Amino acid sequence: MTRIAGIQIEKDSKGRLAYARFNLKKHPEVIELLHKVGAIEESEFDKEFEEGWKNSIPVDEMKERILIRVKKLFEK
Do residues 55 and 30 share a domain? Predict the structure, then answer.
């Protein structure tokens, strides 16, 4: 059997193929396969983060808000 960097095949006690380990940094194409078979799901946190990111304010607006707030702190 040819050895491929980033992939390890393990056998059980009877010598039968049992497990395959993939280095996902070396083989990112495997991630798509894992999504298709349902082994990887998007968590609620990821969905919540993405939704929040869509509703976020632009960087320039955030800078303006921060400057206004800081100026108010020093005026007191």
Answer: no
| 51-to-12, 43, 48 alpha-carbon distances in Å | 44, 13, 5
Q: How many structural domains comprise the chain?
A: 2
Does residue 48 share a domain with residue 33? no
The angle formed by the CA atoms of residues 15, 32 and 28, to the nearest 5 degrees, is 75
User: Does 27 score more than 70 pLDDT?
Assistant: yes
pTM: 0.47
For residue 30, give Cα distances in angstroms to 11, 33, 39, 67, 70: 20, 5, 11, 46, 48
What is the Cα–Cα distance from 74 to 72, expressed in whole angstroms? 5
Range of the domain at 64: 43-76
pLDDT tens for 55-74 read 888 899 999 999 999 999 99
